[in-house]
Amino acid sequence: MHLFYAIFLGLLFGFILQKVGAANPKRIIDMLRLKDFHLMKAILFGIGLSSLLLFVLMWVGVISSDHLSVKASYVGVPLGGALLGAGWALAGFCPGTGVVAAGAGRKDGWFFILGGLVGAFVFMLVYASIKSTPLYSSLGGKMTLVETGVKKYAVLLPSAPPLIVAGGIALAFLAIAFFLPNKKSN
Predict the structure, then answer these.
(1) Do residues 36 and 184 touch, judged by C-beta distance below 8 A?
(2) What are the distances in angstroms from CA 31 to CA 15, 81, 109?
(3) pTM assigned to the model
(4) How far apart are CA 106 and CA 115, in angstroms?
(5) CA distance linking residue 26 with residue 44, whole number of Å
(6) In this model, does residue 89 exceed pLDDT 80?
(7) Which residues contact 170 (CB under 8 A, 6 or more apart)?
(8) What is the mean pLDDT of the chain?
């Protein structure tokens, strides 16, 4: 049943990405150049709404926090994020939108996926030689902003009410999405 949900949610997510124009590299590049706010609004709205729903559903007990996974933070994470951002700006795709573009029949989407696979293969080859470098120095380990109910993670704001903090952040994302201009800027 979990596999069915995963496939259904993946197809729904891909459909939505296609519908909002996220499989079009021109739209993505125009967003990154702050020329077209349509995708930015969709992304901020999606993050805000899903975050708000997640924490509300956890608060009322529909979703267990045991399913949350927190990744450790290392010195190399910001560098990796910068590389991902640069690749996103150059190619006009992020990993998810590249797959959606390939599924929609775009050849550049297939080349993007191939480039990602080559990059992952190269990383696999060099990992043993870089795992003991400062890139893998910890930036505090696994930590959450607020208490999630998972005791194995450190909490940055232990006494803050999770729904208020997470809900406030989610509402801020929704407000930014709402107040961004609708038309292309000049």
Answers:
(1) yes
(2) 20, 18, 18
(3) 0.78
(4) 15
(5) 19
(6) yes
(7) 47, 48, 49, 51, 52, 55
(8) 87
